[in-house]
Amino acid sequence: MNIEDVRAYSLTLPGATEDMPYGPDMVVFRIEGKIFLHLPLEYDCPRMAVKLPPDYAIELRDKYTDAITPSWHLNKKHWSDILIEGHFDDEQLKKWIDQSYQLVFDKLPKKLREKYTTPQPEEKPLSDYERYCLEQAQAFEEELGDDRCYPDMPEGHFVRSH
Q1: CA–CA separation, 101 vs 98, rounded Å?
Q2: Quick one: fold of 3-117?
Q3: CA quadruple 28, 34, 35, 36: dihedral sign
């Protein structure tokens, strides 16, 4: 992955947005205003800062001392800088992005979480008869516009709506 791949993937996550609150050298990704990924642009070796569970972050830093370090200007207990080119495969990087996203998402108020997890009601498909009635009503509207014809009135009598 490169910086553009990280950006593109991060924006596929539900509700993810990006902005540059610290200036043109840092892109930040958020869910409902809460940051889940920092993407600095000024380094020679591209990296991303993700939020990880503290014990897991320590384990990773010990295992990959050259590629994963505590984040420079962030809470070092929770945030880790991960080199994104040449050290890990794309799936592993996506897994860490997902994990960071999920940690932040889980801390959102229930009402905001439900916005992304509650399935939207499916539209009930129309029966043939309902579809026919709808088409007839639309054709009637197009033909008469504001003129209305009522079945109990003699043929050819119209009432103009005001």
Answers
A1: 5
A2: Aspartate Aminotransferase, domain 1 (3.90.1150)
A3: negative
Q: What is the mean pLDDT of the chain?
A: 85
Calpha distance 50→35 (Å, rounded): 9
> Which residue, among 78, 47, 80, has the nearest Cα to 63 in the 3D structure?
80
CB 101 within 8 A of CB 12: no
Q: Is there a contact between 31 and 108 (Cβ–Cβ < 8 Å)?
A: yes
- Each domain of the chain, given as residue ranges in start order, spans 3-117, 128-160
* CB-CB neighbours of 58 under 10 Å: 14
The helix (run of H) or strand (run of E) holding residue 49 is strand 47-51
For the stretch 9-68, pLDDT in tens is: 999 999 999 999 999 999 999 999 999 999 999 888 899 999 999 999 999 999 999 999
Pairing state between β 26-31 and 68-70: unpaired
- Three-state DSSP class for 78? coil
- Separation of alpha carbons 48 and 7, rounded Å: 10
In this structure, how many other beta carbons lie within 10 angstroms of the beta carbon of residue 96?
21
In DSSP notation, 11-33 reads: TTSTTEEEE-TT-TTEEEEEETT
